[in-house]
Amino acid sequence: MKEADVQRHDTSPAEGAGWARTALAALGGLIAGFCALAVATLVSALVRPEAGPVTAVGGAVIDRSPPALKDFAVRHFGTGDKLVLQLGIVALLAVFAMAIGVLALHHRRTGSAAVLVFGAVGAAAAVGRPEGSPPDALPSVVGAAVGAGVLFLLAGRLATAPPAPRTADGAQGAFDRRGFVITATVATAASAGAGLLGRRLTSSVQAGATASRHDLVLPVPDSAAPAIPAGADLRIRGLSPFITPNKDFYRVDTALVVPRLDAGAWRLRIHGEGVARPVTVGLHDLLRRETIERDITLACVSNEVGGPYVGNARWIGVRLADLLREAGVRPPSAGGPADQIVARSVDGMTIGTPVEAVMDGRDAMLTFGMNGEPLPFAHGFPVRMVVPGLYGYVSACKWVEDIELTTFDAYDAYWVRRSWAQQAPVKTESRIDTPRASASPQPGTVPVAGVAWAQHRGISRVEVRVDGGPWHPARLAAEDSRDTWRQWVWEWPATPGRHTLEVRATDGTGATQTGKRTGTLPDGATGWHSVVVDVSVR
Ligand SMILES: Nc1nc2c(c(=O)[nH]1)N[C@H]1C(S)=C(S)[C@@H](COP(=O)(O)O)O[C@H]1N2
Ligand SMILES: [Mo]
Fold first, then answer.
1. For 403-421, what is the mean pLDDT?
2. Where along the chain do its domains lie?
3. pLDDT tens digits, residue range 133-192?
4. Any bridge partners for residue 340, and if so which?
5. What residues have CB less than 8 Å from 398, skipping those under 6 apart?
6. Residue 343 has pLDDT above 60, yes or no
């Protein structure tokens, strides 16, 4: 403090130079921040890309977001929610960096110390993530140390008068403008180099993962999925295709950086209560096992009525129940002590699934193939879980590396700790895909079409009504399996005017979807999807 104080008194800037120094100080703060982040990028490439400060803080924000906010973000930004979050963090950091730069102008040491405080925040966020460990602090700590040093140097250039001779503009203000420019340039260039090197390192590591995905040849399944019935896809304009292409498949997860795992290095451990013979398997062990191929519709509990977070794919993998039985696991109904399977991903996600559901004969899978190709990285490469009939957050762990048998009493998984239900079977839902809300079809016959799903129970009826009138049975597309969604269409004799269309489905047990509107928390939204359209002669 003492030195800074002396400097403050030393520099009595000439009038007019004040604003320029302040602006340069703010710039200095930005440069210091840039250097900190760039160096952190290099260090995180060596430690773990996800341990970088922006990613770590973003992850910590996600971990702590109340469910309503998470829902809001998913709803409004979709998969872009993460980009918005990261841009927000960087923008906020930029503002702080400028403020700290100005602070450092007068309080050099305090300003530099403030940079270290931000480093500590980043370090704490990284270590505190579900998958965090002490080395994850390094990127933030080293980055902040460099940033603090750069700021200290730059503030020094702004504070001290250069030794004579003065430069041409030296008369304007009593600070070392030239020194500032040189220091700023060198620091920026060196840090940019470090950052680029970090990116290079990360992408060369990821190149291995990409190659391992490219090289993965999916087996011909021992038990192929039954051919999709010809009438399963009604091929109506505006209606979701029966099979959702991978590129269009919704994505919901907490990963700011998609984990890119090397298939050859991947291992899955199965252990815990009642596991007589714990096992560790690699991908090649799975490929050598009996493989199955199944069409299964996946849905997110955060999907609002009428929402997009549902998709149908053809999965290839192995039956999880086979592996569990080999490990000596018995379901609770056969006296097994564990009633919950906790799947853990490489990014620290935990997903709790009832053992009974996995072992009751349904096609609960560890999958490595999606629609004829290896799982895309964003969907869990190399291996994820899929369990028909349960929402994704209680069944579909991506990038899975550990399966522990335990009880629901003993352990709450990630989303359960954030007020979502421990157990969540998919609710019967239906959605109108066409016509879209506020469409204006011509009067006459208008196909009203969509999808309905009640995984593992199947769909037995779909009905549509107009303006609260009588329910009309829709024509159902052929059923592929009760684990998949089902398309439907109703030919509407549309008359001019504004009309409200509503849809409801009945599942294979005969239970009709409730019209009572509830939100997504804690175990999935209910209510009938409705769209308002304007039928008009054009
Ligand atoms: N590792 C991991 N697995 C995860 C999640 C996650 O955040 N991390 N999200 C789950 C949720 S909430 C859903 S709905 C599904 C979505 O799978 P998808 O992104 O492949 O559509 O993945 C599940 N598996
Ligand atoms: Mo989800």
1. 96
2. 2-210, 246-418, 429-535
3. 999 999 999 999 999 999 999 999 998 554 554 444 444 457 888 999 999 999 999 999
4. 354, 406
5. 253, 345, 349, 379, 380, 384
6. yes
Strand, coil or helix: what is 312? strand
- Ligand nearest to the CA of residue 131, numbered in listed order: 1
The structure tokens 């684990």 sit at: 483
* Domain 429-535 in the same topology as domain 246-418: no
How far is residue 73's CA from residue 44's CA, in Å, rounded to a whole number?
A: 27
Q: Tell which one of 248, 252, 453 to mutate to probe ligand 1, the residue whose CB is within 8 A of the most ligand atoms.
A: 252
> Model pTM?
0.88
Alpha-carbon distance of 277 to 280, in angstroms, equals 10
CATH second-level architecture of 246-418?
Answer: Alpha-Beta Complex (3.90)
Q: Which CATH number fits domain 429-535: 2.60.40.650, 3.40.50.150, 3.40.50.720, 1.10.10.10?
A: 2.60.40.650
Instruction: Report the pocket of ligand 1 as residue ranges, CB < 6 Å.
Output: 249-254, 298, 300, 345, 347, 349, 379, 392-393, 396-399
Per DSSP (E only), the strands in 139-291 are: 267-272, 279-282
Query: In angstroms, how far is CA 464 from the centroid of its own chain?
Result: 35
Locate tokens 């560890």: which residue? 366
Q: How many CB atoms lie within 10 A of CB 517?
A: 10
